[in-house]
Amino acid sequence: MGDTAWAVTTRTLLYAPRLWMFCLSLLSDCAISLICRRHPRSFPLWPCLVCYASAWPVLLLSSRPLSNTAESILFSIALWAVLTLDSAAPTLALFKCFAAGVLAGAGMFCRPTFAFFSCLLPFYVLHVCGFSVFTWKLHLTWTNVRRVVQWAATAAVGVAAACFCFVAGDSYFFAGYGKLFEWPPVLTPLNFARYNANASNLAQHGLHPRYTHALVNLPLMFGPAALAVASAVASWLWSAKSRSAAMTVERLALCACVASGLALLSFVPHQEPRFLAPLAMPLALAAAPAFARAGALRRTSWIALAVAPALYFGLLHQAGIVPAIAHVDAAQNALQQLLPDAHTDVIFFHTYMPPRHLFVAGAATGNRTSFQQSATATAIAPVTFDSQMNTAPHVIEMSNHTAAELRERVEASTSAGACIYVVVPATLAEHVEYAFLLGGCSAHVEAEFLHLTNEDPPTDWHTLFALLRLRVYSVLCNRVTPS
Hints:
Layout: H1 10-38, H2 45-54, H3 56-61, H4 67-83, H5 90-110, H6 114-118, H7 121-128, E1 131-132, E2 137-138, H8 142-174, H9 188-197, H10 199-203, H11 212-238, H12 240-245, H13 249-265, H14 280-293, H15 296-315, H16 321-338, E3 344-349, E4 370-373, E5 394-398, H17 403-415, E6 419-425, H18 429-438, E7 441-450, H19 464-467, E8 469-477
Helix pairs in contact: 1-2, 1-4, 2-14, 4-5, 5-8, 11-13, 11-14, 11-15, 13-14, 17-18
């Protein structure tokens, strides 16, 4: 790549997808604006936008290339299509039903949990058609029945069209090129369900109590908005007067989406906070009236409580991984200029899984970064290198291993003639350096980056700032066999 007009760097691979996702996330803001214009009594425009924009999952996750972000965007557009339905504009209503069907199909293939959040939206469609389960008013006329059938059929066509396109694309890509119409097809949602139905698969990612989403993740993700919506729903259920005055049908529909998504996701034992990302928009819209009624002090506190986690998770938590990758990648590129056949082992010790696509070294020759989740100390996998892959970094993840196991891994890499980098939090540096010393290895700190890991937090508050670091070690082992 050195002779080209421009070169792909780690920063390019990091920020280009984020910029693209940020542009796509603006569709959610447009959807909120259109919903507020359609229902100004239920959703005041500026409070809705402020509630949505101040939520830290929106500030952070909306610019991340995650499937949860794509699911959130699709769900927000689907909410626009459903909540702005108008029986007085039949042609536009049919278009929105078709769009909602396409979005439902696309959402299911993005993440099948899309159905958890949207499964109660058809009840709002019935309300628009005159069959309201929210107010228990049924207007059984031939016109209303025909409208329900037309809208349902149109949405079904949209779902079928989207599913056909995604099944064809997945089959073409995963089953092998040229096998588009061979049986059986690749059904991604079914594979997703099969994987998550196996408890042993979920155990590899961590098992949580069933109440984690409701009592931990929801307050962590949305804080004041979740509390405001819970309070509004409790008041609506308790008081018949507020039931008729404060809670509109549109807000009830959004609360139903929150309840269904939260309840159904709670049945799955693996519960990460990001799984609740699609609830950002319905919670912001449902909580906006409470925000509009709040005083200046409560609004300031609301925004502060919502933005503070963005600073923590965006600037501090696991913040050193990407700079460490950029540093190692630059060192590998420099090494290739001197030794074209050199190969590198990069060991990430007690960090989150590194984004291996950010390693650019070796890309000029068409090589790809290899990846390995290291075995335990009793069964250290031998390190082998393909002559066609020797310029690409070999990434090894050791997130739940001991310092002794790390030393064995380093020794195995040394015997294969690899250049070794170890990325480790500063809170574990003393144990790691002692393990290297016992193994006859010398370790040099090449770089340090701001970093905090909740799994290995600092315990000595007198040296707090010195421990909020992620260190990159260059390790050399010279084992001398005794005579």
